[in-house]
Amino acid sequence: MKTKIWFIALGWLLLASSCSSVYMPNVPNTPMLSAQGELYSSAHITFKGNASFNTAYAVSDHFGVLLNGSLMNSNREKKDFRHNLLEAGGGYFTTFGDNNKRILEIYGGLGWGSSDRTFKKKTSEGPVSYDRQEVSFTKYFVQVNFSKKKQETLRLFGHTFPMNYGTALRASYINMSEFTRNDVKQPTEDNIFLEPIFFTRISLTPSVQFQYTSGFNVGLKNREFLTAGNSVSSFGFVVNVGGRNSRRGPKN
Questions:
Q1: Which of 13, 28, 86, 229 is the most interior residue, by most CB within 10 Å?
Q2: Span of the secretion signal (predicted)?
């Protein structure tokens, strides 16, 4: 439990102290698949306003496919930021341990995205843009997920809510295909990001869960624009249909 608390605290610290980047990571897909025919979908929002939508389907008892997307459109006093990303992938999953409550998932895939950010300054005539950066990029990722089902419960308002926990480590390679600054082409950059997360799910119904995700990203290369400056900490809702172990909702 102490390890979990330190992980969350570190995520919040990095979130608060992060620098700006043209790359906005999406929330990793953690479907907790357990059997053929299981369908997973989720929607998350980060504390910076990046919305992620993930889905997964178990094609067999050990192979699943993924489809992920994210978007953001933020207009603020000093900076505007827009971002979109689409990913597809697949991989292996298996259950083990007592009553098959432990799940190991290994996925990989690729994606395509773009972002643009505009820096502004105040003048007597209102905000004026002075630096506009536009980027398009490709993404390749691999990730390992480990999770446990119904290890603890939360008692609230006379009901007991089962809780699931999990961790994921994603490695992403981002490569700019085009980069312009104030309509002038710039040298492109690439970077490798390590994006560890920890998530907690609270079952609201047999199929619907609330999820809090704490995480951050680390860039392995020193870059000026494609840096590790944005967190993946978020909250959202998860829907799972099917699977080996049915997910229980609140009890009286």
A1: 28
A2: 1-24
